[in-house]
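[step 3/7] fold_predict: job queued, chain A
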Amino acid sequence: MLSSTENNEEEIKEEEQAKILVNNNDNQELNQEEKEQLTTTTTNEEFLIREEGENKISFQSIGGATHLITINNSLRIACDPVLCPKNTIQNYGFFKSKRLQEPIYNKEELQKVNLWLLTHGHEDHLDKFGMDMINYQSNKNQQNNYQQNNEQPIIIAHKSCKIKNQKVIFLENDNCHFIENCNGFQIKIRAIPAIHSTNVMLGKLIGNANGYLVQVNNNNNLKKPICTFYITGDSVFNKEITVPYFQTQSLFPTIVNNHNNNKTNQEFNRIDFIIANAGGAHVNNSNSNTLLSKFIGRITNNKNDIIELTRELNPIRNTFVVHHGTFEHYLEKLERNDFEKIDERIQVVFPGEVIEWLA
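[step 4/7] structure written:
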């Protein structure tokens, strides 16, 4: 099973709302002592803390923007599979970028993914190795009834993703999609614009993306969602563009209209956690500084953007920071303690690390 790249217990505070695990190999029912270890409260009175529940959620960074969210050891949601090995050189036309970190993942776990979320088609978010994983999974499920109810994985994608021979649902910005039953869970998804630059027009030139707002409910209890989370995709946080999507009476307005659901209770209109792409990426690697790069500037969040994003969207639990250190063009390097004195909710996550809690 996967191990954390960092295991310094002194850096893990009692106030942290999640526990970085060295092993995530126990699928048995949690006892009371384990529940107390996995779930803590915060002393910040501004946070809206939901009661401890019985739903086990885990978040695992695989490397770059690739991550896996598992709920109750049953539902698996994965994002942007980039699985090329370390030292792979990706060619973006006007610059090249080498992978600096190995992806850390369990192949069998990724082969069980129920829902893939693809933010856009750039190679550091969807590569040949990632596509091979999705294709293998779909073909295996089709032949061997691998997934429950003989379902192939559901794929939600931005229009820039070049996927052949797959049953893909392409979402435009602000479109919603409703999955009534995904391995026993109800899922709502809304595409949030991801502006791939500090400038909207330059973002269009580079190729904008989707972020995804996701809410998961257990089909046996639809009154209270298990969790609501936001994946930023490759973007530079823009308060004027992003924040209004989280200030509506319902986070999923078209789903409310089409499926006759009650309007979202205001208590549940808060997001539980954010997965934020960072790294201050540029259209050059660390060995070059072109005029184009100077003109375009950074194309993903830097530290200040992550702080502002967390302050404005105010997640109940955490902002998990990914997409840093993996490729040469992710120029801003992050350390684990970069945000601890600013906002304890912001947690820098490294490849192979698994964070678990109860919701």
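[step 5/7] annotate
DSSP finds eight helices and 17 strands in the chain.
The first helix runs from residue 32 to 38.
exit 0
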